Amino acid sequence: MSVFAMAASLPGAVAAQDETLDADDINEEDVWIGQEVEISNLNSPADLSHDGDTVQNLRVNDRSATVDTSDLEEGRYFVKHGDNNSTGVFWVNEHNVNVDFEDSSVEQGDSTTLNYDDTSDQPRNDSDVEVHVTAELGNETVGQEDLESILPDGESVEDEDDTVAISNLSEDIAADFSEQDTGNYEFTVDVTDTTAEDTAEITVGEEPETDAQFDESTYEENVGDVAEFEIEHDGTDNLTVNMTDEEEFYTADIEITGVEGEDNVTVQYNTYEAGQGNSDEVVTVLDDEGEALDDSNVTVTEELENDENQLGEDERLLPGDYELEVFPGTADETEDETDAAVLLLEERSTGDMNTWALAGDDFDAADVDLEDVEDSAVSTDTVADEDRLVVGVEASGIYGYALDDDGNWVGDDTLKLKFEDTEEPRYGDADSFKLENISNDQVIVDEDEDRFFVVVDADEVVDEDDEEIDETWNVTFSVSETNDYVDDEETVETQFSVEEAFVELVGDQDEDDRFQIDNSNESELTAETNLAPGTDGDFRLRTTSEVYTSDAEIDGDGVLTTTFNLSGHEAGDEIQTLRVTAGDEPAHEAEGVFVSADGDDQPDKKDGFKLDASAPSEVNVDDNATLDVTVVNNNDEAGNATLEVTIGDEEYTEELELDTGESTTESFEFDTSEEGDVDWSVETGDDSDSGTLTVSDKVKGENGANGANGDNGANGGNGDNGANGGNGDNDEKNNGDDKQDDDETVPGFGVAVAIVALLGAAMLATRRQN
Predict the structure, then answer these.
(1) How confident is the model over 25-67, as pLDDT tens digits?
(2) Pairing between β-strand 574-582 and β-strand 588-595 as defined by DSSP bridges
(3) If residue 78 lies in a helix (H) or strand (E), which one and from where to where?
(4) Of the candidates 605, 666, 612, which has an alpha carbon nearest to the alpha carbon of residue 634?
(5) What is the mean pLDDT of residues 253-257?
(6) Which residue numbers delimit the DUF7827 domain (predicted)?
(7) How far is it, in rounded angstroms, from Cα 282 to Cα 271?
(8) Cα(685)–Cα(633) distance, rounded to whole angstroms?
C-alpha cells in the first residue's frame, strides 16, 4: 500500500512504463492488461498462443514484436515463432487499484493523504507504477495550477491539460488544501500503462474561527507550589500563553503544539522552578485525559529584565499578580490574544498538625490513598497498636520541590518530620524516626488543600517487647531557615499515644460473673474496643445444642453489636460460651445464662399473622404427603399478608387477605418419588416454621396376630396366656425385616395384651369368691 503524504521530488520527465521480454529468457514473468509488451529475439513467423489457440499474429521487425494486452484475458501465454520454436510462459494479469483520502473531509488550511492500494490478485511493484490524476470540484474541472498546488509531487503531462503525473508510488505524496475553495472534490487516478482506474472523494469545508479561553478569570496559588490553569480551545492546533509579573520584570512565553485532538489542556506551572534557567522543569501540559504531552510539544521561554537582577538559585519568584494571556496559535501564526486572566501568587504558610487512626485489617500503610483518609480515618490522639496512625500536616509552598513528576513525595533537606518518644530512657537518647525513614508510598499529598499525610503502622512505633506501649510520642514538622521562602524556622507539633489493642464483652452479669442474655427474638450482644472504626469483628454464642455466629464492624464509638433470635431458650438455661473477636486481637470469652426478656422487648405474640404448619416427618416412596399451613390474622383489623412456602427446590407465594380473627388453610404436596430428605419452610412477615420430611423405601411388615389364651385349669391356677404372634415377614419386594430397638416403652400391641390379662385375672378372682 502506498500513501500520498509528504512531498517527494520527481527527477526528469514522466514516461510510460511498458514491459520488455526476451524470447530466449521468458520464465513466468507477469504483465498486466493494457500494457504493450515488447518481445525480442523472435523469428518470423510468430504467433501469441493461449490455451492451445492462436490469439494474435505478431509482426516481427528486427527480431522484435509488440504484444497489445488491452483485449487479452487473464491467463498464461507463450509465443510460437520460427521453425516450431516456443517461448517460455508469461502471465497476463488484470490490474486493480483502490484510492481514497485518509480523511473524508478537511478544512481550508488542512493537509491530508491519499491512500493508493494495489488490489490485484497479482499486485505490481508500486515503484513501477505511474498514474495520471485529474479532479473536479462540483461539475467544474480543477485547473492545472490548483491541481499542482494540491498534489505538489505531481508533474504536468505533455499534451494533456489539467492533469498531473505521479510516479514511483512507493513514495509518500501529500494532498494540500490550504489554499483551495470549499466544496466536494472528486479525483480520478488512472494508471498510465494498464486499464486500472479509481476515484476518491473529499469535502473541503471553511476554515473555522480560532479561539482559546481560560476556564477562570483568576487563579490563586502559593509561591513554591504548582499553579494550574485550564485552557479551552477551538479551531487551532497550537496555543501560546504569555505570563508577565506586575512589574514586568519576569515574562514567560509557553508555546504548546499538537493539541488538535484535545478539547482542553491544563497547564501546570511550577513557581519554584520558574526563573532558574530550567525551562524544561517549569511547565507540564496535560491533555483532556490527564496525560502529559510530550516535552517536544511544549516550549518555554523565560526572560528577566537584565542580567544584574536575574534570580539566583536561592531566590524565587515573589508573591504578586501575574497577568496571563492566551493566543490561538503559535507566535508566528497570530498576534491577538483571545482571553486574559490573573494568577495571584501568595505567601506560603505552615499550619496545624493532627492525628487520625485507620483500621489495621482494612488498610496497608503503603496502599492508603486520600479517599481512604477522608472517608475512613477517625480523629484521635490515641491509637491501638494494631491500627494505622495517620499524621496530617497543613503546609503550603512546598509542593513545587517536595514532589517528583508523578506527584510522589521525595522530600527536601529543608523540610523535616520527626517522631520522638517523650519517655527519656535512663541511658542514651529517646527512640525516634524521621520522614526519610518512611517509604514514599506512605506519604499522601493533597496539594489542592495544601496538606499532606503520613501513614505508619502503629505497631512499628513501639518496640518488639511492647515496652513503649502506653507511652506518648511527639511529632514535629519544621521548615528550616535555609528554605528559600522563610527567614526563621517554622515548626508545628502534636502528640499521640499508642495503646495495646483490646476487645471485651460488656453487659449485665450475675453473681457468678455470667453475662445475662435475654431470651428474646432480637437479643443484643455488645463489646467494646479501642481499635479503629471499620475494623471487622465477630460474635459466637454456644448453648448445649446450638451455635450462633455473626459478623460485626466497629462503629465510631468503638462498639461492636449484633443480635440473635434466642427466643427458643428458657430463662435459666446456661450459655456455654460467649466470644467476641476484633482484628487480630485474642478473643474475649465468657460464660452466660439466659434470662427472661423484658415485656417491652417482646412483641405481643397475639399480634400479627401467625401460622400453624403440619407435615409428616417420614413417608415411604410414592406415598402421599402434604404440608398443611393455617394462617390466622391476630391483628385488631383486617389486613393483607404474604405467605411464602419453600418445599425442597420449589417456592410458592400466596397473597392473603384476612379479617380480624379470620384464618385460612393452604395445602402443598410433597414430591415423594425419590428417597431422601425434603426440607420445608413457611413464613409470613410475623411468623415462620420449618421442618424436614424423610422419604424412605423401607416398609414395615404387618404385626402377627395375638396368640390365643390358654384354657383355665379346673379350680386350679389360671392357664398361661398364649404368646404374642411374631411380626409377619416383609413382602419379597421389601429390602428386609423391620426390627425395633429394645427400650423401656411397651412395644407394638403389648398394651392390649396387658389389659386382656388384667381382665382375665379379675374374672378368675370373682369365680373363686363364688
Answers:
(1) 999 999 999 999 999 999 999 999 999 899 999 999 999 999 9
(2) antiparallel
(3) strand 75-81
(4) 605
(5) 95
(6) 207-326
(7) 7
(8) 12
Class of domain 503-599: mainly beta
Site of grid cell 496571563: 324
Contacts of 107 (CB under 8 A, 6+ apart): 204, 205, 206, 207, 208
Q: What would the DSSP string read from start to end of 478-539?
A: EE-TTSTT-SS-EEEEEEEEEE---EEEES-B-TTSPEEEE-STTEEEEEEESSPTT-EEEE
3.40.50.12780, 1.10.10.60, 2.60.40.1080, 3.90.226.10: CATH of 1-207: 2.60.40.1080
Enter the CATH code of domain 609-696.
2.60.40.10
Quick one: average pLDDT of 538-556? 95
The grid cell for 84 is 516450431
Dihedral of CA atoms 344, 350, 351, 354 in degrees, nearest 10, equals: 130
Q: At 602, is the pLDDT very low, low, confident or very high (cuts 50, 70, 90)? A: very low
Name the strands in the sheet holding 415-421, side by side, starting at the edge strand that comes first in the sequence. 382-384, 490-499, 472-479, 415-421, 432-434
User: Is 211-346 in CATH node 2.60.40?
Assistant: yes
Report pLDDT for 430: 84
- The whole-number pLDDT of residue 415 equals 94
3-state DSSP call for residue 126? Answer: helix
- Count CB neighbours of 93 within 10 A: 19
CA atoms of 116 and 38, how far apart (whole Å): 28
Handedness of CA 81, 85, 89, 90 (dihedral sign): negative
DSSP-H helix ranges across 29-68: none
Evaluate if residue 718 carries a pLDDT over 60: no
Q: Decide whether 1-207 matches 503-599 in CATH topology.
A: yes
Residue 45: is the preceding peptide bond cis (ω within 30°)?
yes
Q: Which helix (H) or strand (E) holds 763?
A: helix 750-769
Residue tagged 399480634 (cell numbers): 607
Q: What is the pLDDT of residue 506?
A: 96
pLDDT computed for residue 113 by the predictor:
92
Beta strands in 215-297 (DSSP E): 218-222, 226-234, 239-245, 250-256, 264-270, 283-286
Question: What does the DSSP 8-state code read for residue 544?
Answer: S
The vertex-696 CA angle with 691 and 701, nearest 5°, equals 125
Do 504 and 528 touch, CB atoms closer than 8 A? yes
Q: HSE-up of 743 (CA within 13 Å, CB side)?
A: 6
Give the three-class secondary structure for 541. strand
> The C-alpha cell of 314 is what?
536561592
For the chain, the structural domain boundaries read: 1-207, 211-346, 350-498, 503-599, 609-696, 707-739+746-770
pTM as predicted: 0.56
Tell me the sheet residues that pair with 688.
Answer: 683
CB atoms within 10 A of CB 724: 17
Q: How long is the chain?
A: 770
